[in-house]
Amino acid sequence: MKKKTIKYSIATIIILFLVYQINVGLALGIDTFFINLFPRTKLPSELVYYKNLSEVKKFGNHDITLFHKGGAYNFNFQVLSISNDKIMVKVITKTEAFDHGGGNSGSNFSNTLFKLDSFGKVLDTTTFKTSSSDQSEFGDIVLLNKQIVNKAFLYYQTWPADGNKAKQAFIALNKDLTWTTERLSKYYYDTIVPNSIYLEPFYAWRDDSIPVDKRESIVYFANNQWHVLYGVGSEISKNARIQSDDHNKKIINENLLSDIPYDKIKIKYYQKLKYESNMAGQTQSNSPYTYYYWQGIAYINIAFEKDTLKFKKEDVYLDDYDNKERSIYDSTSDNKQKMENSVKEKYSYYFNPNLKFTIISDNETKNLYLVKK
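== DKNYY family protein ==
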């Protein structure tokens, strides 16, 4: 009697499991359910030992070390050239949420700048804070022209180039607002426009000593010095915006970190793990459609001189097709190329022949690595 009970229990469990699996299969699509029952192609033996990038410590005559572990707060890295044998790397080391009420919420960021020599050794560091709010107490800081420039509080630091952390004020012009319209216009068009390297409109809303109708100003860099010209009026302010945007004089962060050239990255193999489907496209005017894709692992090679950095990237998706447009435009080769391009865009690097190391950024995990010979 006990044996029959056990058999019935096992049979019941099996039936319930099959019903559950069928329900899951129907929810995902019965085709994906049955495809996932089939065995997968065995991974080629030479790829079995590929590790995640964070686990690779050495390849050939090269070492790879984690310079900075990323997190949700690391939305980008910046690399600034200081000299032939020195660079600066900026990372966000901490984030703190703020909420001042009335919809004024966001994040404040702690930034650390690392000055590295040609061998990747950290020579010095400095820190500052930034914010996602345009009206923050930290101002608007950019790394530009081998300097740390605060466009809101009108000071700059030359620490990247010479180690001086002192805040040096912009040269103020027409702060007493005594210049005539004619003098402002002549000085702007004859002196600032032809001589400035960087130029942007500036609204002096933080300075209560300036009347509201006189706050339209400009900031610019000329003759190796930062300046602020107050009370320029709308015409000059508008022209400064044109000069900034259309004539490449905008005061924005420099960043030498760039995409790794495609010819250096090879997708050695794509391992299909799971076949999936999803429904999309449903609107008031369009009917929904199902698209199908593989979830798997990409095995990646990156060439470094005579050595090759080998690692795997998990959770990579390869489109199969969608039942809305299953046609010649959805060929296997096209989708594979699309997948490879997507994987290649996940990595950035900085290389300089004067340096004895290369920087690699995993743009998804936000990890930053140094590769040294």
